[in-house]
Amino acid sequence: MKIKKGDKVVVIAGVDKGKEGKVLFVDRKNDKVIVEGVNMIKKHQKAAPNQQGGIIQKEAAINVSNVMYLYKGKPTRIGYKVEKVERDGKIVNSKQRIAKSTGEVID
Questions:
Q1: For the chain, what are the domain ranges?
Q2: What is the rounded distance in angstroms from the CA atom of residue 101 to the CA atom of residue 4?
Q3: Residue 93 CB: number of other CB atoms within 10 A?
Q4: 81, burial (CB in 10 Å: exposed 0-12, middle 13-18, buried 19+)
Q5: What's the number of CA atoms in the CB half-sphere (13 Å) around residue 89?
Q6: Helix (H, G, I), strand (E, B), or coil: what is residue 63?
Q7: DSSP bridge pairs for 54
Q8: What is the pLDDT of residue 105?
Q9: CA 20 to 30 Å from 50, out of 39, 67, 77, 92?
Q10: Can you tell me the distance from the alpha carbon of 78 to that of 65, in angstroms, rounded to the nearest whole number?
Q11: pTM of the predicted model, to two decimals?
């Protein structure tokens, strides 16, 4: 999965199309992400000894195919670039994420 926790993304499909937010959680098994302030649901929570009950609002998971990475304020696809780098006398592969629109290294 090319989206990581902490990435800034924009929703490209669904009810919340156009909303931006930070990725809070990534579920690699189910290809889902939770984005801050997007896909809000109301949950009826039962009172517990240390917690008050009531109706709370929280973010629900959204499919990763419905979000796109924001690079310098513009949505872009993400790709990978693998380079051979010499470390401690050994040649190892270094994998970096790149923005497909500009070709610049993201991290």
A1: 8-75
A2: 19
A3: 8
A4: exposed
A5: 0
A6: strand
A7: 45
A8: 94
A9: 39
A10: 12
A11: 0.83
